[in-house]
Specification:
Strand content: 15-25%
Distance between the termini: 43 Å
Strand order of the largest sheet: 8-7-9-10-11-12-13
Number of strands: 13
CATH architecture of the largest domain: 3-Layer(aba) Sandwich
Number of domains: 2
Radius of gyration: 21 Å
């Protein structure tokens, strides 16, 4: 797949760059930061986006000349491909532990983040993940933190939006049975019912499927006023085309995995009118979104994706905690991360609650208009 070649080339280039720089700064102590995400397969574009955000933060940190334990340090990103597969995630998690990394920035998917988190917890390593299923930070571990708003918070906002803003009282829900898709769909269902709506049909698919005709035909018979899908753009794109082919014109709503250029390409003209939620705020509305975008484009010669700025802040959160503790030892910088309060690219106020969830809750609803994603509304509040 074309993403595979891109990621492998990027990884080789980054590794080579670090090696050359390392020769120039031989006296610097090397601090390894681990990253794991989907770097091959249909989700590679998510993993690439996240990885580039991390790389940008590490580049900047190395230019800053940070000292830990009184010594100049150089941060190095050690990347592993978890293939968005839970079993592979556990394997690469142990590889990262064996590589003697000082912290984990990943995984991307909830389905990989949660099983891998047990490995990191047992090893005593701090983990800041993109995975947003609520179970991640509810395991009772003291080392788990997020880069984005959780699915509990996002699902609540989406459910209310469909009932209260779209005035859709009868909702059909589909999910792909992944931790992410099912978890988000479950939260949407709760919110729909709490807002006075009714779930008239709940259907299931997989993250490998591409024919949804049978599911959509069943849904058509239930006459919903809106359809929500919890899953990836690789499925939501074909699903939206098939909805149009069946003459189903009610609003189609999904989560942040659908808010992508890949969805627009896969859905084609049928993408028009689709809604998608995204944890966070639009890039141009972020605290330092414009500055981040300029730095990203200068470094990678392309526009940043959805996840890059959150990965960037996640990396800086970890590095800032290390700097404040004066150490890359997880046991020493963990307390600093717990009481962290900083302005980042994505927010004026980045801080964590007792579970490792972000205190600031922000969710934005987007809609496809004239072939492009446009913001509909943003909801920002403090977690309860």
């Amino acid at each position: 797949m074309r993403f595979t070649t891109t990621i492998r080339s990027l990884a080789m280039a980054v590794t080579a760059g670090f090696c050359v720089a390392g020769a120039a700064h031989a006296a610097d102590t090397e601090i390894k930061l681990g990253y794991a995400g989907p770097l091959t397969g249909p989700q590679a574009h998510y993993g690439e986006d996240m990885q580039k955000g991390l790389i940008l933060a590490i580049d900047e940190a190395n230019k800053k000349g940070i000292k830990l334990d009184g010594k100049a340090v150089k941060f190095v990103l050690v990347s592993r491909d978890d293939q968005a597969d839970p079993r592979t995630a556990v394997t690469v998690a142990q590889q990262l532990v064996d590589d003697d990394v000082s912290g984990i920035l990943g995984h991307f998917n909830s389905g990989t983040t949660i099983p891998a988190s047990r490995v990191y917890h047992d090893a005593g390593l701090v983990q800041i993940a993109m995975g947003t299923a609520p179970e991640y930070t509810k395991q009772g571990y003291d080392n788990t933190f997020r880069m984005m708003t959780s699915d509990t918070q996002q699902g609540a906002a989406v459910g209310r939006f469909m009932v209260e803003t779209l005035h859709s009282k009868k909702i059909a829900i589909i999910d792909d049975r992944t931790s992410y898709g099912q978890g988000l769909a479950d939260q949407v269902e709760k919110a729909v019912k709490a807002a006075g709506g009714q779930v008239v049909r709940r259907e299931y698919t997989t993250d490998k499927a591409n024919d949804f005709t049978s599911i959509l035909t069943n849904i058509k018979g239930a006459a919903p006023e809106a359809i929500f899908f919890g899953g990836l753009d690789a499925q939501s794109g074909p699903m939206k085309r098939q909805l149009a082919a069946l003459g189903l014109t009610m609003p189609f709503v999904s989560g942040e995995m659908t808010r992508s250029d890949t969805f627009l390409k896969l859905a084609g003209d049928a993408a028009e009118g689709t809604y998608a939620s995204l944890a966070g705020v639009p890039l141009d509305k972020m605290a330092a979104g414009k500055e981040f975008a300029a730095a990203y484009k200068a470094r990678f010669k392309e526009e940043p994706g959805v996840y890059a700025p959150y990965a960037y802040d996640g990396a800086w959160n970890m590095i800032t905690a290390m700097e404040e503790a004066g150490s890359a030892d997880s046991a020493k910088y963990l307390p600093m991360l717990r009481k962290l309060h900083r302005k980042g690219a994505t927010s004026e106020s980045i801080a964590y609650d007792a579970n490792g969830d972000l205190k600031e809750v922000s969710v934005t609803i987007y809609q496809v208009k004239n072939g492009k994603w446009e913001m509909v509304e943003t909801m920002v509040s403090q977690a309860q």
